[in-house]
């Protein structure tokens, strides 16, 4: 292993495992629908984030840095998207856990969230700015990021699956979902307002 790869892997680990909106939604999804049903959103979210690293490495990051209005639009779109997801999670709090009517956080939603999440774009700019080097082409950095992110997000789903064991009755599920919805809202809007 190249000495320059280990710091990048550690950065990718911290960026992927730390709490954030996508990880909170995967936690809730894992608790409600299980690990198997969470695999598609996990793969989709991680692939989208790795794709963003790749796109930024190809030059899209410079375009975004030169257009602050585009950054603002992405920030607001991300906060509004997360608010909608939090509202759905909050409203679904009293529904049966395994009911087919319970709305799932699907692969499309997971990928879309990454595309409007300014934190993912800033992370990608940091990856390319700090770790891109002639010996590590951009596609390899994106691939390594994907391989590190998958088990990290999988750990959040497993945490959700484990928490489901203690959430047998409807009142506990209601409180759990409402708490996650509120944390998701705080996460989305505090990131937006701190950048304003």
From TrEMBL:
BP GO annotations: cysteine export across plasma membrane
Membrane-spanning residues: 6-27, 39-61, 73-90, 111-132, 138-159, 179-195
Main location: membrane
GO cellular component: plasma membrane
Subcellular location as annotated: Cell membrane
Membrane topology: Multi-pass membrane protein
Protein's name in the database: LysE family translocator
Organism lineage: Bacteria, Pseudomonadati, Pseudomonadota, Gammaproteobacteria, Pseudomonadales
């Amino acid at each position: 292993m190249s000495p320059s790869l280990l710091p990048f892997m550690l950065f990718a680990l911290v960026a992927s495992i730390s709490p954030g909106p996508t990880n909170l939604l995967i936690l809730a999804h894992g608790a409600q629908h299980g690990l198997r049903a969470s695999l598609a959103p996990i793969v989709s979210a991680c692939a989208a984030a790795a794709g963003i690293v790749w796109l930024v490495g190809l030059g899209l990051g410079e375009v975004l840095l030169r257009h602050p209005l585009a950054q603002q639009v992405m920030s607001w779109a991300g906060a509004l998207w997360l608010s909608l997801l939090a509202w759905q999670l909050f409203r679904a709090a009293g529904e049966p856990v395994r009911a087919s009517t319970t709305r799932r956080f699907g692969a499309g939603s997971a990928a879309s969230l990454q595309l409007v999440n300014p934190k993912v774009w800033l992370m990608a700019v940091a990856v390319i700015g700090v770790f891109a080097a002639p010996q590590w082409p951009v596609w390899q950095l994106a691939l390594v990021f994907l391989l590190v992110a998958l088990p990290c997000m999988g750990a959040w789903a497993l945490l959700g699956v484990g928490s489901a064991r203690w959430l047998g009755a409807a009142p506990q599920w209601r409180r759990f979902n409402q708490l996650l919805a509120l944390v998701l809202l705080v996460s989305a809007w505090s990131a937006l307002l701190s950048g304003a």
